Amino acid sequence: MTARTDAQDDLTALRHKPLHLLRYLDENSGLPGPRANLTLVEAFADVVSEDIVWQLAGSPDQFRRLCASAAMGRLYLERPGDEKVLARMTELAADDDWRVREGVAMALQRVGDGSSELLLGLVARFLDGGARVIRAGVAGICEPRLLRDPAVAGAALGACRTATDRLRAMSFDERRREDARTLRQALGYCWSVAIAASHERGLAMWRELEAEASADADIAWIVQENRSKARLQRLLAH
After folding, report:
1. SS3 53
2. Among 195, 213, 193, which residue's Cα sits nearest to residue 204?
3. How high is the mean pLDDT of the chain?
4. Which of 99, 129, 188, 222 is most buried, by CB atoms within 10 Å?
């Protein structure tokens, strides 16, 4: 048995004991500390009932909200196109807590594991949001295991391009805000992930991005960060 299976079993046994379930989450969260227990987060998203997910989505506790945000992916797979779930996911993607926002990226990846078509639709919606929501969409789709699907790989490149254009369109003052910096940081690694999955088109888009770097300091930073990644260095060396 794996640690995730063990956690699934524990959570399932506590399904009808919500107070005990919450205590279990608190005691096994890994927080405070440098790393949250993501195995427990995934197990929660696998098995915990929808009513608990909705309850914890509004919790003031960081780890409980993280668990709920990751579980939104399962709810969306169960009810594709559910606007209530989508609205809550985008709200959580704009959360002030970075762990909670990362939970939404995990939710999108869960959707992608189940349906690439649903993932592409969600990412398109996320790209119409604010900087934090865009960041969740880009981080969600730029996951190597999902990019084995050529359609997803192509969409990941498109998402990076759209997100970069959105960043470029921001004013100087807007770019200095935390949410814009968070988006820039994601683009500092997502481009290389997407390019590595779709070499020919990706490298052509990379050359376009490099050409833009001389006129924009944030684009130059994104180029420099991605160029430092081994996966891109290997491609550029050929």
Report:
1. helix
2. 195
3. 97
4. 222
**What whole-number distance in Å separates Cα of residue 214 and Cα of residue 210?**
8
How confident is the model at residue 194, as a pLDDT? 98
Contacts of 224 (CB under 8 A, 6+ apart): none
- State the DSSP code for 14: T
State phi, psi for 144 to the nearest 5 degrees: -50, -40
pLDDT surpasses 90 at 115: yes
Q: What is the pLDDT of residue 238?
A: 79
Task: Work out the burial of residue 60: count CB atoms within 10 Å of its CB; fewer than 13 is exposed, 13-18 middle, 19 or more buried.
Answer: exposed
Query: How far is 160 from 78, CA to CA, in rounded Å?
Result: 28
pLDDT band at 1 (very low <50, low <70, confident <90, very high): confident
Q: Is 30 left (phi over 0), alpha (psi -120 to 50) or beta?
A: left
Domain segments of the chain as ranges: 3-175
CB 92 within 8 A of CB 69: yes
Alpha helices in the chain (DSSP H): 3-13, 18-28, 38-47, 50-57, 62-78, 83-93, 98-114, 116-126, 131-141, 150-168, 172-175, 178-197, 199-213, 217-227, 230-236
Give the model's pLDDT for residue 191. Answer: 98
**Listed residue (55, 46, 66) closest to 19, CA to CA:** 55
The pTM score is: 0.95
How far apart, in Å, do the first and last CA atoms of the chain sit?
Answer: 43
The residue written with tokens 């770097």 in the block is 213
